Amino acid sequence: PTATPELANPGKWSVGVRTMQVTNPEQLSTADFQSKADRKLTVEVWYPAKADKNEQLATYENVTRLHKPFSLQGSSYRDAPVMKDGKYPLVVLSHGYTGYRTIMFYLAEHLASHGYIVVGIDHTDSTTGEVDFEKSPFSGFPSTLVNRARDQQFVLDHFSSLNSDLGKQIDSENASVIGYSMGGYGAVNTVGGCYDFQQESYRLLGF
Fold first, then answer.
1. Which of 6, 111, 141, 181 is the most buried (most CB within 10 A)?
2. 94 has which bridge partners?
3. Which residues contact 137 (CB under 8 A, 6 or more apart)?
């Protein structure tokens, strides 16, 4: 215990979790790269909660890349009321290719216990459940490249302006993105990084 970093210990808040559906309207369709369609996302939201310790703890169900189902036990309380004693910074979690919104649930629960509201995204077309990794492993890759940063930006904006019990507790002036693998690619894009297509760059790289 004396060697444990302070923030490695759980925070003072109990943690609630809820599943939500959000829609980013009129987004470019990667089916033809011409038409537009509403882009629907499923998100998991963890937050400081006013929880009864007798309430049911959340479990997280998903599938492996071979589509084998599994379930993991969490330490948050499903649909518990949000704690209304202050404003909490917003953190967006973005999974890799492939992945799912609860893949970093352990980090989300830990951050929420320290006073953050954390939103994990199911990036549509890029989830483990949608991609057949044996027969068509790259089927979701075009959508991933186009939509990863857009999804992150939309979720940040959506939850920063959300007018609900949860939205009212979000400190919209303080927000961040944590991305794993392809989620990290999106995070770099989200904060302003992009490809450099200048000819000089290609020359320096030897192309």
1. 111
2. 121, 179
3. 131
The token pair at 84 is 């209304």
According to DSSP H, which parts of the chain are helical?
105-113, 141-160, 182-190, 199-205
pTM to 2 decimal places: 0.91
Positions of E strands within 50-151:
57-63, 69-78, 88-94, 117-122
* Among candidate residues 116, 110, 119, 98, the one with its CA nearest the CA of residue 169: 116
How far is it, in rounded angstroms, from Cα 34 to Cα 122?
24
The SS3 call for residue 46 is strand
Phi and psi torsions of 77, nearest 5°: -105, 120
Q: What does the pLDDT look like over 93-114, one tens digit per residue?
A: 999 999 999 999 999 999 999 9
State the greatest distance between any 2 C-alpha atoms of the chain, in Å, as a whole number: 64
Measured CA distances, 194 to 3, 102, 200, 203 (Å): 40, 27, 16, 18
For the stretch 19-31, pLDDT in tens is 999 999 999 999 8
Give all strands of the β-sheet with 36-49 in edge-to-edge order: 57-63, 69-78, 14-28, 36-49, 117-122, 88-94, 170-179
Let me know the angle formed at the C-alpha of 92 by 87 and 98, rounded to the nearest 5 degrees. Answer: 160
